[in-house]
Structures are given as structure tokens and as C-alpha cells.
């Protein structure tokens, strides 16, 4: 990594950066308050499924926020970024008013800046390792908001830059799945000159960015622009194609593909296996969100149906649970309730999402766990039984273990239940490639440093390896896999 | 985009489509299904593959007009395109040689049964097929089934063709007459339920191919969950065929009605 440090140093010593640092004294920079993201009014926004909650910073706000960044000699923020964005460089470009250059900087290492600026848990990553957080105990520079600003500015300017691509080397590689891991992988491989094809099982490209994350958090048109950018760089997208089913790996090898990046996601929803869970009106968050986001089920002119509950219970405390419960509210639920077995402090959802949910009138029933569902004569759920929980000693995750309070059951009337208690890895690819080594949880085993699987020409990343993580960690995997697949293929071709 | 190269009307509500899908035609096996979406506004619907020609690169689908999505598909003509089609999905039928196989098909369920009957016959089994429907005009693919069966029995509810009675009556007649080593049942859930109850009585291993509600068809949504032997399975990736004697058919029938209100409203809007 020393070369990277040197590179960062060279960039930092460029004249414009040196001059910019001198324009405002550090004392003055640190005295400024962190910008607040303008938001749509909660009462207004719950009327729309597709209107973004966060409105985005104005140019003035962005420049003011960027000027808080001290352009540290040792930028610890970058260490917190799974795709190693040159954060001070893009932030300083914003301060200097060179917004298009800021966007270009983001695209050096990130295939999806407008997406990351919206859905990354910055508070656990770059902003957690920001100098302000670590050394000054102050609010960090709003790196995420600034990232979004630069990406949005570029898109709206009509001057989208297409990153430079190395001359074609004629080597065909495939990415399986079209979610964030694959897109990040594809972006890096195409830059290196490879012939990249992304295979997607669904009829739309984007994976979880399209079927999972609702438009009020990540509008589809934002994702489409980033996809368009990859296409302009030369990435080929094939929809309605399941590698291992539509064609086998051997078929694709015969067609000239030399290596594969498997990023087929954690596409198998978990249920709790409690009595009554198969009644109608009880569905996985994957199903609920896919119907609404991918299939537009909430709109009358689309054919896919969705049940619109009056009292909706969402089981779970993660981001997907928040997405589901806030979707239910937008589809007209009178009561939309999060039911989570631990307390608020242990909820894995982003603080921002919980805060937004609360503003929108979502109810939180913490320390409660469903034990049984009941239905009407047609088999449609109408009531659920929950049991109160207490908190015991910390478990393996470091969070206090929920314990059952015996005899504490009570019933809640509900007419729609969304189960968001996690996902398992999609078994399709492991079941088609018998030699592929998988863990007891069904995740593909890879060497951590290289993302290479037990089959040398197969790399893997994202949720099929991690079992359920974030967009940005998947993107980091994609980058790592790209770098190592490149090395593998270059060595192979040298040897021949 | 998959072009329709042939369309044959079996009745007012049932049609056979031959669709251009070279990859699927090459890789599909008996028991596999596809998911398709007719147009931009369309639903993703599963349809079991009723045959394929890997040389011509086509597959056969049989469609019964029921709701909005099947009606939209039904209206397509030769030369039109189906917007999206993905497959082959599901686990292929486990074709083996138990000896005598009794294949029971109800309504359009005869279509997905055809390649299974063919495969069992080619594997060296004695195959007896029963094809059943409400009335004569709803009996489909009789010649094709006959081609791969040692014996074919036609049953209609109203007696307008073949023998009057339900599929189970024909099945019981065969079972009482000779040794049946294995049974397959494909058709409406109710028909499969009663066929399964019958073969359970005679302890004949039986596979049923389920037609659950699905969205993605790749294991992602869980809409197609079904209880088999007290455990929950996903029809799309664990099935579509299961041990019929272990299937909770009442739950399946209940779940098939899960969106009946929404579907009714949508159909009213459509017509």
C-alpha cells in the first residue's frame, strides 16, 4: 500500500491543493458546524413511494461543508472506505467549486458514486475514521452528502465523464448477478481492458439496487444513469440469463469466457418457522419489496398485485425492515409497526433510517418476538401473537442476547406481515457447480485477500460470500476480485 | 425478447405457443419451467415447459386464459414477442425406471406432463396415461400423449368424451387392474390432492408438480413456499415436483388464492 500512500501524497502536494489549504485557517474550518441534509417534510413524503426523502445539498451548502475538511496529511477517512475513494481530493475539488472534477475523482475508484452517496453507512465507515470524529470528538465532515452532491451535480450538468478505458486485451470475463459487487467488478475490469459481460437473472439490471432498496431512498433513475455509464465504457449486460441454468459454466467457457466473478447475492429469504407463517398476507421482505420496487405493484396500471395492509407488522430491525415498514406506510397503512426482539440500541439499521422512520410515524415494538400467526376462514392473516423479551449477557455479535420472558404473550391484530429477519445465500450456483467449496451456511468460500474460490477461474464476492452485508462492502469485494482476477489472468497468459 | 413462431388454439381458452428460445431449448429437461413477462406492465408468471426442439431452438408453452397476465399472453399472435423469458428453472424430473408409471394429467396440466411421459417411456417404463378435463373441448395433446404411452385413458367430468368421471376414477381402475410402481400427477391443485390421496391408499410413490404463485422464480422471494412433510420448501428451487403424499395440499390451495381479491380487481380493470 506504500505506492498508494505516495500517490495520495503527490496529489495532496499539487499546487491547487496547497493553495486551497492556505485560504482558510484550520481554526476557522473546525469552528464551522456540519451541514444538515435538507429533507422532504415527513407528512408530505409518506404520500409518495418514489420521492426521495433526502433532497440533497445546494452548491453553497456543499462548498461550505467541504471547507470543513482539513485535507489531513494522513487522510484516515480513506481507510474507512471499502473502495478507497480519494476522499480529500474530491472534497477539496468541491470546496474549489470544481464539481465535475470532484465527480471524476469519485469515479476513479467507485462505479456507483450517486448510489454510495445515498445508501452507504458512512457513519460506520469514512465518517467514523474522519479526523473530526477520531481526534476532535466533533461531527465528521459529511462525506456521504458531499459524494452524493458531486455525483448528482455531474449527472444534472449533462457533462457526464466516461472514465478512461485501457485498450482492449480481448480476454472475456463474466460477472454473475448485476448488483453492486458485479457492477463494481465490471467497472474495474473494463478499465483494465477486459471484455466484460454481466449476466442477470431478472429482467432488470441492478440487483438489490432495483428490487430491494425503495425509490424513496434510491431512485431508479439514479441507478440507471450509473448503469448507462458502465455501458458507455463497454460493459455488456445480458438480462434473463441464469448462469448454471440457461447455460452452464462449461458452455460459457466454450464461448470464450476465461474467468467468472460470482456475485449472485443472498437471494433466499429466511423465515422463522413458527406456526401459521404460511398464511396469506405473510411474506418475506424480498417479496414485498420486489413486488413494489421491481414490479411496480402499487401502481394500478401494472399487473403485479400487492396486498395493502391497514395494520402492517414488519419483523426485524435492519435496513430492509426499515425499507419495508416505510413502504407499507406509503402504501396507506394506518399502523406500520417494527417488531424487533432486541432493544433500539441493538437494531442493525442505519441511525438515519430509524430516524426517518420515526418521523414518518412508524411504531417501534422493541423487545418483542412473534410466536404464532392466526388467520380468517380464507387463510388470510388477521392476528399475531408476540412474546416479550428481555436482554441477557452479550452474545457472539457483542450485542446483548434477547431472552424470552415466559408467560408474556399477547396478541396484536394485523392484516399484513413482512418478515425481514435476514437472508441466506442463493443456492443456485453452488448447486450447479459441485466442485465449488461452500461453507455450512451455503456461502461460497474464497481466499479473503483475493476473493478467489476453490476453482481458480472463479472468484466471488458480495452477499454470496458474506451472507448479507451492505452495498459498499459488496463493491469493495468487486474491486478486490477485479484486481486479483486481472493478476491471475495476466499470469496465465504470460505462462502460455 | 422471444418471438412466437407458432400458435395453435386448443379451445377458446387454451392455446399452444411455440416460442423462439434457443438457449432454453438446449438446456431444458422434463419438469423445468420458465418465467415470462409479456410486456413492460406485465407480471412475471411461471409456465412449465411442454416440449422443446433444440435444433430449431424453440420451446412449447401451453397457456390457459385465467387472469390478466395469461389473457395478455393468450392474445399474442405469431410474429409477436414476449418481452422477457428466463429459464429453464426448477429441478428437472428425476427420470428412472420403476417399471409401470401411471401419469395423471388434468386440464392444461397435460402439457407439462407430456415431456415427462416421453422421458419415462424412453427410459424403458410401461407408461399408462390418464388425461382428464371437464369436457371434450378441454382435452389437449391426446395424440402426443398416446405416442409415448402404452395405454391412454381419457376422462371427462361430463362424459362428452372418453369415460365419464374424474381422473381418480380412471386411476383407481388401473391400480386395481395391475401393479403400478410410480405415479405422477399434474393439474389443478384439487385434482392432485385427490390423486395423491388415492395413491397413498395403495402406497404408490407419487410425484406432483406444483403451480405455486411466484415472482422471481430463483428462490429470492419465497412467495411459492409449500409445506412438504412438515417443512417449508420453495417450489421454484426445491421443486416444482415433490413427494405428493407429503404435500399439504390444503395449504397450497389456500395460498393459490392469496391474491384473489387483487387479481379480481385487476381483471375487471383489464376487461
Q: Brief overview, please?
A:
With 496 residues, chain A is of the alpha/beta class.
Distance between the termini of chain A: 30 Å
Head-to-tail CA distance between termini of chain B: 26 Å
Largest sheet properties of chain B = 7 strands, mixed
Structural class of chain A: alpha/beta
Q: How would you classify the quaternary structure?
A: heterodimer
Strand segment tally of chain B? 17
* Rg measurement of chain B, Å: 18 Å
Put simply, the count of helices of chain A is 21
Main sheet: strand order of chain A: 3-2-1-4-16
Cα shape of chain A: globular
Query: Strand order within the widest sheet of chain B?
Result: 12-11-10-9-13-14-17
What percent of residues of chain A are in strands?
A: 15-25%
Residues in helix, % of chain B:
25-40%
Secondary-structure element order of chain B, N to C: EEHEEEEHEEEHEHEEHEHEEEHEHH
Derived structural class of chain B: alpha/beta
Q: Total strand count of chain A, please?
A: 16
Q: Helix fraction of chain A?
A: 25-40%
Number of DSSP helical runs of chain B? 9
State the shape of chain B.
globular
Amino acid at each position: 500500500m506504500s505506492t498508494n500512500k505516495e500517490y495520495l501524497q503527490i496529489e495532496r502536494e499539487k499546487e491547487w491543493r496547497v493553495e486551497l489549504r492556505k485560504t482558510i485557517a484550520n481554526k476557522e474550518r473546525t469552528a464551522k458546524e456540519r451541514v444538515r441534509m435538507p429533507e422532504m417534510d415527513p407528512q408530505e413524503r409518506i404520500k409518495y413511494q418514489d420521492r426521495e426523502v433526502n433532497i440533497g445539498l445546494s452548491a453553497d451548502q456543499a462548498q461550505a461543508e467541504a471547507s470543513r475538511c482539513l485535507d489531513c496529511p494522513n487522510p484516515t477517512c480513506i481507510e474507512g472506505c471499502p473502495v478507497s475513494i480519494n476522499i480529500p481530493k474530491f472534497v477539496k475539488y468541491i470546496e474549489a467549486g470544481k464539481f465535475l472534477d470532484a465527480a471524476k475523482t469519485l469515479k476513479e475508484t467507485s462505479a456507483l458514486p450517486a448510489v454510495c452517496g445515498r445508501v452507504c453507512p458512512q457513519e460506520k465507515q469514512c465518517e467514523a475514521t474522519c479526523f473530526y470524529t477520531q481526534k476532535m470528538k466533533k461531527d465528521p465532515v459529511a462525506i456521504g452528502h458531499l459524494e452524493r452532491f458531486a455525483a448528482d451535480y455531474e449527472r444534472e450538468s449533462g457533462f457526464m465523464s466516461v472514465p478512461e478505458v485501457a485498450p482492449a486485451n480481448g480476454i472475456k470475463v463474466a460477472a454473475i448477478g448485476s448488483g453492486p459487487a458485479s457492477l463494481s467488478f465490471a467497472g474495474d475490469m473494463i478499465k483494465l481492458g477486459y471484455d466484460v459481460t454481466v449476466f442477470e437473472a431478472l429482467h432488470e439490471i441492478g440487483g438489490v439496487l432495483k428490487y430491494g432498496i425503495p425509490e424513496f431512498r434510491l431512485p431508479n433513475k439514479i441507478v440507471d444513469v450509473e448503469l448507462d455509464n458502465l455501458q458507455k465504457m463497454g460493459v455488456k449486460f445480458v438480462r434473463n440469463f441464469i448462469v448454471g441454468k440457461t447455460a452452464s459454466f462449461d458452455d460459457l467457457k466454450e464461448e470464450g469466457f476465461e474467468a467468472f466473478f460470482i456475485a449472485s447475492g443472498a437471494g433466499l429469504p429466511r423465515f422463522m418457522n413458527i406456526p401459521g407463517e404460511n398464511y396469506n398476507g405473510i411474506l418475506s421482505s424480498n417479496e414485498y419489496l420486489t413486488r413494489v420496487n421491481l414490479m411496480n405493484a402499487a401502481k394500478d396500471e401494472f399487473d403485479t398485485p400487492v396486498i395493502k395492509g391497514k395494520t402492517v407488522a414488519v419483523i426485524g430491525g435492519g435496513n430492509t425492515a426499515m425499507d419495508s415498514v416505510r413502504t407499507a406506510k406509503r402504501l396507506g397503512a394506518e399502523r406500520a409497526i417494527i417488531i424487533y426482539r432486541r432493544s433500539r440500541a441493538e437494531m442493525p439499521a442505519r441511525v438515519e433510517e430509524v430516524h426517518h422512520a420515526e418521523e414518518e410515524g412508524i411504531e417501534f415494538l422493541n423487545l418483542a418476538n412473534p410466536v404464532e400467526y392466526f388467520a380468517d376462514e380464507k387463510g388470510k392473516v388477521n392476528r399475531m401473537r408476540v412474546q416479550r423479551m428481555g436482554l441477557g449477557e452479550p452474545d457472539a455479535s457483542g450485542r446483548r442476547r434477547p431472552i424470552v420472558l415466559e408467560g408474556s404473550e399477547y396478541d396484536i391484530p394485523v392484516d399484513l406481515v413482512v418478515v425481514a429477519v435476514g437472508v441466506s445465500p442463493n443456492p443456485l450456483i453452488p448447486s450447479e457447480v459441485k466442485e465449488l467449496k461452500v461453507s455450512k451456511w451455503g456461502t461460497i468460500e474464497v481466499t479473503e485477500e483475493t476473493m478467489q474460490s476453490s476453482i481458480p477461474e472463479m472468484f466471488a464476492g458480495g452477499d454470496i460470500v458474506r451472507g448479507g452485508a451492505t452495498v459498499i462492502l459488496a463493491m469493495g469485494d468487486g474491486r478486490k476480485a477485479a484486481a486479483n482476477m486481472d493478476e491471475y489472468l495476466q499470469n496465465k497468459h504470460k505462462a502460455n | 425478447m422471444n418471438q412466437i413462431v407458432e400458435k395453435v388454439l386448443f379451445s377458446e381458452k387454451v392455446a399452444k405457443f411455440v416460442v423462439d428460445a434457443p438457449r432454453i431449448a438446449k438446456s431444458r429437461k422434463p419438469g423445468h419451467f420458465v418465467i415470462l413477462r409479456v410486456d413492460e406492465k406485465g407480471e412475471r408468471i411461471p409456465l412449465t415447459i411442454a416440449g422443446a426442439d433444440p435444433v430449431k431452438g424453440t420451446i412449447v408453452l401451453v397457456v390457459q386464459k385465467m387472469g390478466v397476465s395469461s389473457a395478455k399472453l393468450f392474445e399474442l399472435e405469431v410474429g409477436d414477442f414476449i418481452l422477457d423469458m428466463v429459464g429453464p428453472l426448477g429441478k428437472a424430473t428425476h427420470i428412472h425406471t420403476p417399471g409401470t408409471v401411471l401419469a395423471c394429467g388434468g386440464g392444461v396440466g397435460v402439457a407439462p406432463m407430456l415431456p415427462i411421459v416421453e422421458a419415462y417411456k424412453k427410459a424403458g417404463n410401461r407408461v399408462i396415461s390418464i388425461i382428464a378435463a371437464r369436457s371434450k373441448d378441454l382435452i389437449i395433446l391426446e395424440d402426443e400423449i398416446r405416442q409415448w404411452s402404452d395405454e391412454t385413458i381419457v376422462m371427462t367430468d361430463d362424459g362428452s368424451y372418453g369415460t365419464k368421471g374424474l381422473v381418480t376414477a380412471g386411476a383407481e381402475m388401473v391400480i386395481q387392474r395391475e401393479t403400478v410402481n410410480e405415479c405422477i400427477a399434474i393439474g389443478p391443485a384439487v385434482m392432485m390432492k385427490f390423486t395423491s390421496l388415492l395413491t397413498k391408499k395403495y402406497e404408490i410413490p407419487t410425484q406432483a408438480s406444483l403451480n405455486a404463485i411466484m415472482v422471481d422464480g430463483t428462490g429470492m422471494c419465497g412467495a411459492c413456499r409449500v409445506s412438504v412433510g412438515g417443512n417449508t420448501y420453495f417450489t421454484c428451487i426445491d421443486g416444482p415436483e415433490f413427494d405428493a403424499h407429503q404435500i399439504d395440499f390444503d395449504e397450497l390451495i389456500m395460498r393459490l388464492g392469496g391474491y384473489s381479491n387483487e387479481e379480481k380487481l385487476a381483471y375487471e380493470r383489464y376487461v
